[in-house]
Amino acid sequence: MRLTRSGASFKGLCPFHNEKSPSFYVTPSKHFFHCFGCGASGDVISFLMRLEGRSFPEAARQLAERGGIELPEEDTQDAQEQRRVRQRRERLGSLMGAATDFYVRMLTEHDLGGMAQAELDKRGVTPEVARHFKLGYAPHSWDALATHLAREGWSLAEAEEVGLVVPRRTRDGHYDRFRHRLMFPIADVHGTIIAFSGRLLATPPGEKEPAEGEAGAKYVNSPESPLYKKGETLFGLHEGRVAIRRQGVGLLCEGNFDLVMLHQAGFENAVAPMGTALTLAQAKLLRRFAERVVCVFDGDNAGRKAVRAAFPVFREAGVSAKVVTLPKGEDPDTFLRNRGAEAFRALLDNAPGMVEHLIEDAAETAGADPHARAAAVESLGPLLGAIQNEVERSLYVERVAQRFAIGDVGMVRRSLRQGFLAARAAGGPGRTQAARAAPEERSAALPGRSREGAGSPEAAPTPARHAPQRKPPPLEGELVGALIDQPTLFETDLAKSLEELLTSPDLRAIVAAARESTRRGEIDAAAMLAAVGHHPFRLWLEERLSLEKYDGDSARRVLTDGLPSLKLAGLRRELDDVKQQVLQARRRGDDDGAEALQRRVDELHAAIFATQGAKK
User: Fold this and answer.
1) Are residues 125 and 198 in the same domain?
2) Are residues 602 and 479 in the same domain?
3) Are residues 49 and 177 in the same domain?
4) Does 208 map to a domain?
5) Residue 71 near residue 60 (C-beta atoms within 8 A)
6) What is the CA radius of gyration of the chain?
7) Are 41 and 145 members of one domain?
8) What is the pLDDT of residues 573-613, one digit of tens each?
9) Which end of the chain, N or C, is more open, meaning fewer C-beta atoms within 10 Å of its C-beta?
10) What is the arithmetic mean of pLDDT over 357-375?
């Protein structure tokens, strides 16, 4: 993301929500960021945690390494083991990075690298996108990579461990797993290369074409390793994490080229599972960045099966899903090349919800044959049974009846229930759903059965009660803001006078937190916010911390000019209050008390007169 200077801060487009005008501010002096659009705020550690899904220790460690700072670590046995595992992963990650660099160089330096480049050109992949995804070429050789790694001092045993090379069966040594293939590096969410996917290229000129069935798989992927777990990885998530976070939605496609071409066409929020059906771990990984997803699958039988298989996974992960079905024979790659990005965007904009899509698809597939239509209705039972919210499920039951032109909704409900029970007995989605419920709750998951108080698995948990958000009195807020901008003023009489004159205890708590979190003339904004907690002025404070409105001279001037006005307002409030007390004393017949209070009235009049004179 690009930031431009704005006074003492920097501003740019927020990486956490979609916007056209910059509302994201970074204030270096306070080590703090804040978005006026979505309210995201925090320090550099929370920024990394939010943007990349890192834990606090991971974010802190990354920043420390970047700054050349050695973090103290516990010396317990568990800590030593964690450190050993982390160092091993880092070493293996560096090895994968070296292999990536080799493949990228071979794309332009190897004699046959032009065949991989020709494949990219045929697909319309630009050089910029190829560099962005670090696409490369695995040479047409048994041991080009193995020889290179050994020459560079890398361990071939570790290269075997991460699936780069394979041990020879008949003699010592290793050969390359990937040979004469276009290489797609697969990064984890933090950007470390953890695996490869290699696409088979045409037979090199002058070589005999392999017999049918002997050419090898079209795609070869890395085996699972200490770095790579296929069911826990999404291709493109590192490259697309900012776009997914900003737009609040991810696109799930199937193929390597599909993903690359979607990114090139501007759909940078696309990800793809690694040649496998979507897993719960992948759905939960995506859920860390967005609550919504649009599945972009081919319109063939495999695409239909993929949608049905993904539905219970998304439900369990708490992800709201829609579906784009491409015309038969098309995939995102060909669709974008043939029809363009605007046509694809129109499909996304009109994508139906996943349940709606599955109902529609079942009806279209069944056609007019009565037996097929009855079977199609029954097949929807396990899907609707996974919906625990009674109202939502009932609406979908009615939708099934409408789409299949069945007037008896009760008959549809019975057919759906029969399909649900059959799937549960066979170990399908219905059984999985019921097994997660307590015995007395299992019937609630069945279409047509109800249970009072049933909730949706997608419902968000009830948020903790926070203090209602409001703004401080204008003058007091402005003066406290000036002090926050220039915390060196805490050492002056101006700050002490301000604290004495503040009428808001909430503002006094903010000033105390600011004073406590000031180190070497700068406020630690994150520490300050942690100290105030769920404060009624918290939103105002987050916004105020993100903008430095006053420099040293202007902050001092604002305080010097504003304190007399604040004092005057306080004196007038006290005067009105004491006058009321005088009247009440006289009504009670307390003449002595009234006289004492009247003397205080006179003192206040004199103080107001003196303060007004000082202001002039």
Assistant:
1) yes
2) yes
3) no
4) no
5) yes
6) 33
7) no
8) 888 888 888 888 888 888 888 888 888 888 878 878 777 76
9) C
10) 91
Distance CA 287, CA 37 (A): 22
Question: What is the pLDDT averaged over residues 233-255?
Answer: 92
The CATH number of residue 220's host domain is 3.90.980.10
pLDDT at 110 over 90: yes
Task: Give the integer Cα–Cα distance in Å for 544 and 490.
Answer: 17
Q: In angstroms, rounded to a whole number, what is the distance separating the alpha carbons of residues 583 and 587?
A: 6
Using alpha carbons, list the distances in angstroms from residue 402 to 354, 359, 407, 514, 517. 17, 10, 8, 62, 63
CATH number, domain with residue 587: 1.10.860
Bridge partner list, 272? 235
Q: Residue 212: what pLDDT?
A: 59
- Residue 311 to residue 379: CA distance in whole angstroms: 14
The DSSP symbol for 485 reads: H
Residue 609 CB partners (closer than 8 Å, separation 6+): none
Residue 278 forms part of a structural domain: no
Of 432 and 484, the one with more pLDDT: 484
Please name the residues in contact with 388: beta carbons below 8 A apart, sequence gap of 6 or more: 444, 445, 454, 455, 456, 457
Other C-beta atoms within 10 Å of 517: how many? Answer: 20
Higher pLDDT, 246 or 1: 246
Structural domain that includes position 89: 83-203+216-228
Task: For 30-83, give the secondary structure using H, E and C.
Answer: HCEEEECCCCCEECHHHHHHHHHCCCHHHHHHHHHHHCCCCCCCCCCHHHHHHH
Most confident segment among 259-263, 276-280, 354-358: 259-263
Give the span between the Cα atoms of 53 and 49, in whole angstroms: 5
Q: HSE of 94 in the Cβ direction (CA atoms, 13 Å)?
A: 9
What are the strands, taking DSSP E only, across 91-180?
136-138, 165-167, 174-176
484 and 588 housed in the same domain? yes
131 and 197 co-located in one domain: yes
462 in a domain, yes or no? no
76 occurs within a structural domain:
no
Q: Is 496 exposed, middle or buried (0-12, 13-18, 19+ CB in 10 A)?
A: exposed
Cα atoms in the Cβ-side hemisphere of radius 13 Å centred on 255: 15
Whole-number Cα distances in Å, 157 to 150, 161, 192, 253, 408: 10, 6, 20, 35, 67
Task: Please count the structural domains in the chain.
Answer: 4
43 and 156 part of one domain: no
Q: How much is the mean pLDDT over the chain?
A: 85
Compute the half-sphere exposure of residue 314: CA atoms within 13 Å on the CB side of its CA: 24
pLDDT surpasses 50 at 400: yes
Beta bridge partners of 250: 293
Q: Write down the pLDDT at residue 227.
A: 95
d(CA 139, CA 102): 10
Examine the domain organization and report whether 47 and 89 are in the same domain: no
57 CB-near residues (< 8 Å, 6+ apart): none
pLDDT at 444 > cutoff 60: no
